[in-house]
Amino acid sequence: xxxxxxxxxxxxxxxxxxxxxxxxxxxxxxxxxxxxxxxxxxxxxxxxxxxxxxxxxxxxxxxxxxxxxxxxxxxxxxxxxxxxxxxxxxxxxxxxxxxxxxxxxxxxxxxxxxxxxxxxxxxxxxxxxxxxxxxxxxxxxxxxxxxxxxxxxxxxxxxxxxxxxxxxxxxxxxxxxxxxxxxxxxxxxxxxxxxxxxxxxxxxxxxxxxxxxxxxxxxxxxxxxxxxxxxxxxxxxxxxxxxxxxxxxxxxxxxxxxxxxxxxxxxxxxxxxxxxxxxxxxxxxxxxxxxxxxxxxxxxxxxxxxxxxxxxxxxxxxxxx
Length: 321
Fold this sequence. Notes:
Elements: E1 17-23, H1 28-38, E2 45-51, E3 65-68, H2 70-75, H3 94-97, H4 101-109, E4 115-120, E5 124-125, H5 129-138, E6 143-146, E7 174-181, H6 182-198, H7 208-218, E8 234-235, E9 241-242, E10 254-256, E11 258-259, H8 261-270, H9 275-279, H10 284-290, H11 298-315
Helix pairs in contact: 4-6, 6-7
């Protein structure tokens, strides 16, 4: 349906774009990731947008830094919804569930860019971002994301969208690396605010990947696949890529998720692995860990297995407390 959007006004002047590097921490790994990004951006303005809900993040060595918090989102009119949803790791973060919220805060502070490129701290690009943005402008693209994962009918977060959209309307796209036009972000911000008034607290709150892709489609905006622009064969949600393996993936345009060794081990162990995965030496879990020295993960593996076993026994009613 048409919600009264004005036609996209392609600019004749040089395209202005911002690159939003999303993180919730800063350390040597984040600094290396930032340097890799700098090497791929010639004319865009790079910003670090840091989730500081749990406290200020010190030591960010960059001249454009914007801190965001959950409290700031509420001031923008964005509700703290989605609190009953857990991510794949069994953790909850408002800013993770609503991965678009920080974009609206950034848009409010920096409303004059033609395009907004978002990437998370665990994305590595081996392609020229200027060229991607130029292509977006040439094709009048409003949102470029990636459809990858299970079919939308069995998508894990589909239920969060069921109260806001009809069954045939729901779509989803990954936004770990994506591009928005200014008018798309403005529209999405308006729609989030509208849903805040129309959806009751007992109704589902659309997960960001479904909200963005669905609203853009309903509005009739141009939303090409990222695969039409670059190679995405190494872009998925899991399993992780070890930072040390990046030289062997120089051919891949977008790599996600890329993690340093401690985070790599943590990610492998936090993923939804059943007890059989721990006990079977041929499982994906062990294949991903085996390439590392055993001493680097054996203690973490044992702790993770014990926690998984306790949760399983409690779930089956065998263990209490």
